[in-house]
Request: fold
Amino acid sequence: MDTYKCSTSYNSLEELVKDNNVDAVGIFTDGPLHVQHVVESMKHGKHCISAVPAAYGSMKEAHTLKRTVEKYGLSYMMAETGYYQQTTISARKMYEEGKFGDLYYCEAEYQHPGLEVLYTENGKRTWRYGMAPMHYPTHSSSQLIGVTGERLVNVTCLGWGDDDPILKDNAYDNPFWNGSAMFTTDRGHAFRMNVWWRGAHRGCERAQWIGNKMSLYTQSSTGAPPVIVRSGKQTEKDDAGFERTMAEFEEYKVPEYWATDMLPEPLRHKSGHEGSHTFLTHEFISAITHDRLPTVNVYEALAYTVPGIVAHESALKGGEPMDIPDFDGAQYKRARAKS
Reply:
């Protein structure tokens, strides 16, 4: 309150939402409480921006969130940082300009070893204790859906776990530290996604977008810089002596979009998660004031979130292929088709 000059505080969300001077609420509470808190806020006429994921591990919650937003007609946005990371903005611009050609494959992964430090607080288990990796998919799924607008329609997923007591006793009956999934998109493209909590790997949020004309690789977990690869015109011989096309590589310097007129001047400063936080703030408020859907609206948010819920079910069934339900509203589908 001292830092941000806030003169008013509340003892609970239930008290806050009754304040008629409050127009919008930021839901940055425990993951399993997001939908409950959005419902409570919208019942009292409040717009909502929610932390990720939109719904936590439950198809029932996903349906509840969609029905709530449609019922009250208020603005809902999920604060997915992946959509506004500077490399993702680059990929989206390249896609819109047709530079990839046919972007037929994408992969993304979220490696976050060491999360156990957040599993307990003051000797008590937090909501993160034993969390299923695929129930936290949006940092990765946003890298494809937030660039091309595709929907994930089918998945097969494998999980990995060990004999750690955390995986034997948690609120989610989750036996996995890591999840690795292969998705099919509604355009017949392939998308691979990894969400890993444990193993001999370095933490990262990374993606690569592969097209027949050009590809973009973000910075790797080993520190290699972002790279653009273009289909080459020259040829070379491989180690077996066969001739092949030689690709053209160039290091890609990611623009600092946060420092441009993409943001109003007071928000042009470097923020967390690769410059995304100020973009999220601006987009939510701009969408409300201009009475339009925000970029990561409820339909986009569920398109990012629900595939992870289904992927976890696939992993529990040993990688059984599973269809992913469509949560887009009819009006939203028509708008997407026109665009």
